[in-house]
Amino acid sequence: MSDKLTRRARREYILERHKAGAIYREIGKELGISAQRVGELVRQHRTVTSILEDKIKEAQERYRPGDPDAPIEFLELTVRVYCSLKRAGVTNCADALVVYQSGENFTPAHPRLGRLRNYGNAARNELGRQLKFKGYIREQ
Question: Are 122 and 140 contained in the same domain?
Answer without folding.
Answer: yes
